[in-house]
Amino acid sequence: MKTGRFRSAFFIAWRHFFSKKKHGIVNIISVISMVGVLSGTAALVIVLSVFNGMEDVVVNSFNDFNPDFKITAVQGKSFGVDTFPADRLRALKGVKAVEEVVSDLVLIEYGESQHLIELKGVSENYIAAGGFDKMLIDGSFQFHTEEPQVDEYLNAVYEPGDCGVMGSRAAGTLRLNLNSQETIKLYYPQRQSRALAREKDLTKKYLIPGGVFESQTEYDARYLFCSIDFARSLMSYEGAMTSVEVFLDPSAHMDQLQPEIEKIVGKQYHVKNRFQQEELLFKTVHSEKLVIFIILAFILFIAIFNIVGTLAMIIIEKKEEIVVLRYLGADSSLIRGIFVLEGMFISFVGGVLGMVLGGVVCLLQQTFHWVKIGDGTGSYVIDYYPVRMDAMDFLIVFVLIFVISLLASAIPAGRVRDTSKL
Description:
- This protein is an alpha+beta fold.
- It has two domains: about 5-60 and about 280-420, no CATH class; about 70-275, no CATH class.
- It is built from twelve helices and 14 strands.
- The chain has a six-stranded mixed beta barrel. A two-stranded antiparallel ribbon has the order 2-12.
- The protein is elongated and about 105 Å long.
- The protein starts with a helix and ends in a 9-residue tail after the last helix.
């Protein structure tokens, strides 16, 4: 349609859409169609914004626990301390700490309970660099004790030794009591053993419960921290480590430093940033958001396609006006354009109002936290549904409304090709 013809069609459709109307059945159906589009659009905006907020909570939770970069060997479970270029990494601008880590799954026994857990041997500097001391809810992050410990369960006395700090969920499973002085027994397969049927094929050591941490993530059920020397002794990793974890200054840019770190360590090492360390989790979150978007978009599609019936009734109602327009020289293309635009006006008004309503609801939730999660007693990471509005979501919803409206309006508008069919 040429510019002049489009202006004519737009003017007529605009005047007709915003003119005073009688309260007939067609106008009532038009309003219902508009409200349907409004509701679907608002729901889509709100749900997408809530998913954005949930994603932020997940990212922030795991960012508190994961290092900025985790470096592991491409082949094998461990690599030598002497061959790794740790000093070159420490020399990079923006790098706060480069820490050696020894970790693996071990079987622990406490009282009559047993549990598989990942023992993570680190230095005390690691705790400070990663901010793990802020997660402590009981005891201390001290990996050594100077006082003799009495194990009431085994009826034994242990000399001053190594301490461990356990995640809160694992501690709850084992019913860990820091005041009982009962020690944690750890079992790890001897590296030279081929069978694990006998207890002598396992290395056995003891840890004194020193503290409990809570990160509000699944790591609370998975990790037991200890000194790196203790972990090396248990797992026979003398002079070796299973990973290197890099912590950055707050002002450093992770995306800029990753290529530099990969270049320094070479192809024999994997370098993963915070997001790559939880790649499956973030893919799951994005997949869930996509599925919800498709479902709600389909509902919006149905709501907008109600315009097909509404517009068909409008065309029938305006049969006499169409004949007048033909006598005045309007051809089928111009008349179709008028009704396509009127159908799109119905969708767009509903869509824009829906986006405004959705934005207002999200803004109110951000400000006042009206909709709570659970009973609001603090048993969750957050007490309310998080919301983050994203301009890209609004743009996608707008484009979706435009495309569906155009298709829905074009179908009934095609009926005006031959006046005799009306």
